[in-house]
Amino acid sequence: MVNCAAFGCKSHSQKKVLGITFHRFPRDPRKKALWIKNINNPDWSPTIYDRICSLHFERRFFYETDLRKRLLGEAVPTIFPDRSGYLQSKKKRMTKNLGIKLSKLTMKLLKNLCRSQVFI
């Protein structure tokens, strides 16, 4: 079974979700370092078995053949919607320390902001 290496991602090969593919980390050390930086998990480094699922790549980084969905050479994972999950405890501490309770709208805006961040 293959699991996605991105923090908080629940994708794995046994789910068989149509359109989700799993991709190896690049062999080129510079590209690999950029992927690791974008994953933003400082205490982790990928093994030869780790994969990133297609949910973390923009559509422009793919080309499709009749049989497969492939990544272009310049592809970099930039979409991490669950990143807010491990930022959540920090937000709770900040709001507790400030004595402020954020409204649902503000939290939604913060979450969307976290989702739209591109780490290059």
TrEMBL record:
Transmembrane segments: none annotated. InterPro entries: THAP1/10 (IPR026516), THAP_Znf (IPR006612), THAP_Znf_sf (IPR038441). Pfam families: THAP (PF05485). This is THAP-type domain-containing protein. GO terms for molecular function: DNA binding; zinc ion binding. Residues 1-80 form the THAP-type domain. Keywords: DNA-binding, Metal-binding, Zinc, Zinc-finger.
